[in-house]
Specification:
The protein has 22 helices and 16 strands. By secondary structure, it is an alpha/beta fold. Strand 3 and strand 4 form a beta hairpin. In the C-terminal section; belongs to the NAD synthetase family.
Length: 662
């Protein structure tokens, strides 16, 4: 009598609305699962259409094409003799649901709708789907004719049920349901379910403690993971827990869909069960070296561009971005060495050389990454040298140019029209003149970046164009410490969701693990935009002085604003306790007022923020994640008055325990 079952869970590189590619990847995963002996194959959430369709879920085309793909899967000989569990949107009685469709040998066994929808952070599932609220209940779903023609079924069960095979019982969860206070698997287990599946569409976030690097974008040979389990282990473990058995005797039963199929084989005595998975924890620096690098590769191959163009300033942020591309090249070379033919084919298509096989990450980086140091009269020799040294060590094709002729020309046009010539503050100009002259430099760098991205390969006799990489970190975006439409404006920004603190840790990690000694000088140098005149050839401007706060403080403000949902007054009340050993209430109030004033004045910049890898839960990305106004009353009169009243109360009480502030 068989008791050991092999199941497969798949993490696929699906793409929203790429129905043809998604179908091929699903079929390939089923082939791999069968080859490894699996009798049940579980795919990711909404894998048929791709999870990120967003408002395309409203379109009838998305539902139609999903059904067409389902029909193709049902008809394929690849899906025979294995229970297939796929994700897709389903319209039932004119209501749209996020569903699992479970089928075997051209017959649909169950359509199981999601019962808890993710609706926080990046997720908007309640915008497009309705949750199934009828626990342990099913009803008839009338199949569309194109599916009836394949399955010869008119209706199938739709709702909250479990599968009863000849040898076990299987229950399905979908992503968010696992995180609810009373997850479905609790009652399923009490009702005799022995195998639980959970199809997920969850994304990678730093410190989320999930080993998801292999589940991020790059297609690898580990896209299908199988496990063999001994059902007797489950049964014997449960049998001795009397309290569990008492609860099980009282639980309301689930509807069972009977399946004339066994997950186990009769002769499985010598089949070894899988060892428990050893959880892989990465440091934040390691996570950054892997996740965003995979994202870059996926974006590059999908966009069919020939590489990246990066303005390399000699500072930490652009150096971190360059290191991510280099890390990407290292992972690509490793995948090719491990025999990944898909990655090899993608590389050859990108570099336009059918005989090329990447072996050295530096060589590949030279083909895929063009870096450019854009000097001005305000640039120091030190930053120029640091940028050039790093480019040499990672192997990028490096360009050095001077933007002064363009700056002079643009300012000259203004002077010709107005008769006025703006000056830097160091030369007697006003703050308005000083800021305008800095912004001209920054914006011209963006114009030149796109010009070189479009034509630098043409000038070198190569085909294609380059994607422009941005390098503004999450803290600078939060405060708006960037020029609108400067080099923060790019095609994609791999560090846009990462804090300065984490970026420094990542750069230090790269210095040690990738043998890039140039990063030591970059880490040691003060962060500077180099947009104001030098003093005796030395940098006179630093980021933290310009911002009026440290990057460490910015990270605290960011977490309180977004994660703790703190407005100005709430943030003051929290910080007056957090910082009571280093700041007086008056100093805390001044810091909070300064942050919120600058944040409010610059919030409009978030509407044009370059799409970024989402890595921090306090990202200010207005496009997808942080939906707030972009025009505030930046004086916050009511809120700041509440803070001032509280400061007066604290000052009148004198130095004492501040724990009671609320």
């Amino acid at each position: 009598m068989g008791r050991k079952v092999t199941v497969a869970a798949c993490a696929l590189n699906q793409w929203a609305l790429d129905f043809q590619g998604n179908l091929q990847r699903i079929l390939k995963s089923i082939e791999i699962a069968k080859r490894k002996g699996a009798r049940y194959r579980l795919g990711p959430e909404l894998e048929i259409c791709g999870y990120g369709c967003w408002d395309h879920y409203y379109e009838s085309d998305t539902l139609l094409h999903s059904l067409q793909v389902l029909a193709a899967l049902l008809e394929s000989p690849v899906t025979q003799d294995i229970i297939c569990d796929v994700g897709m949107p389903v319209l039932h009685r004119n209501v749209r649901y996020n569903c699992r469709v479970i089928f075997l040998n051209r017959r649909i066994l169950l359509i199981r709708p999601k019962m808890a929808l993710a609706n926080e952070g990046n997720y908007r599932e309640l915008r497009w789907f309705t949750l199934w609220s009828r626990s342990r209940q099913t009803e008839e779903y009338f199949l569309p004719r194109m599916i009836q023609d394949v399955t010869k079924q008119e209706t199938v069960p739709f709702g909250d049920a479990v599968l009863a095979t000849r040898d076990t019982c299987i229950g399905s969860e979908i992503c968010e349901e696992l995180w609810t206070p009373h997850s479905p698997h609790v009652d399923m287990g009490l009702d005799g379910v022995e195998i639980f599946t959970n199809a997920s569409g969850s994304h990678h976030v730093l410190r989320k403690a999930h080993a998801r690097v292999d589940l991020v974008t790059m297609a690898t040979t580990k896209e299908v993971l199988t496990a063999t389990l001994d059902l007797e282990d489950v049964r014997s473990y449960r049998a001795e827990i009397s309290s569990r058995n008492l609860a099980a005797s009282r639980v309301s039963p689930y509807p069972r869909v009977k399946v004339d199929f066994a997950l186990s084989c009769r002769e499985d005595l010598l089949e070894p069960p899988s060892e428990p998975v050893e959880w892989m924890y990465h440091s934040p620096a390691e996570e950054i070296s892997l996740g965003p690098a995979c994202w870059l590769w996926d974006f590059l191959r999908r966009s069919r561009q020939a590489g990246f163009f990066l303005p390399l300033s000699g500072g930490v942020d652009s150096a971190a971005t360059a290191c991510l591309v280099y890390s990407m090249c290292r992972q690509v070379c490793e995948a090719v060495r491990n025999g990944n033919q898909e990655v090899l084919a993608d590389v050859r298509a990108i570099v336009d050389q059918l005989s090329y096989t990447p072996q050295d990450p530096r060589d590949l980086c030279g083909r895929l990454l063009t870096t450019c140091y854009m000097a001005s009269e305000n640039s120091s020799q030190e930053t120029c040298d640091r940028a050039k040294e790093l480019a040499q060590q990672i192997g990028s094709h490096h360009i050095g140019l001077n933007i002064d002729p363009a700056v002079t020309a643009v300012v000259g046009i203004f002077s010709l029209v107005t008769g006025k010539r703006p000056l830097f503050a160091a030369h007697g100009g006003s703050s308005r003149e000083n800021l305008a002259l800095q912004n001209v430099q920054a914006r011209l760098r963006m114009v030149l970046a796109y010009l070189f991205a479009q034509l630098s390969l043409w000038a070198r006799g190569a085909r294609g164009g380059l994607l422009v990489l941005g390098s503004a970190n999450v803290d600078e975006s939060l405060l708006g410490y960037l020029t609108k439409y400067d080099c923060s404006s790019a095609d994609i920004n791999p560090i846009g969701g990462i804090s300065k603190t984490d970026l420094k840790a990542f750069v230090h990690f790269c210095m040690e693990h990738f043998q890039l000694p140039a990063l030591q000088r970059i880490l040691a140098a003060p962060a500077t935009a180099e947009l104001e005149p030098l003093t005796d050839g030395q940098v006179s401007q630093t980021d933290e002085e310009d911002m009026g706060m440290t990057y460490a403080e910015l990270s605290v403000y960011g977490r309180l604003r977004k994660i703790a949902k703190a407005g100005p007054y709430s943030m003051f009340c929290k910080l007056v306790n957090m910082w009571k050993d280093v700041c007086s209430p008056r100093q805390v109030a001044d810091k909070v007022r300064q942050f919120f004033s600058k944040y409010a004045m610059n919030r409009h910049k978030m509407t044009t923020l370059t799409p970024a890898y989402h890595a921090e839960s306090y990202s200010p990305d207005d496009n997808r994640f942080d939906l707030r106004p972009f025009l505030y009353n930046s004086s916050w009169p009511w809120q700041f008055r509440c803070i001032e009243d509280q400061v007066h109360q604290l000052e009148s009480r004198g130095p004492q325990d501040l724990d009671g502030v609320d």
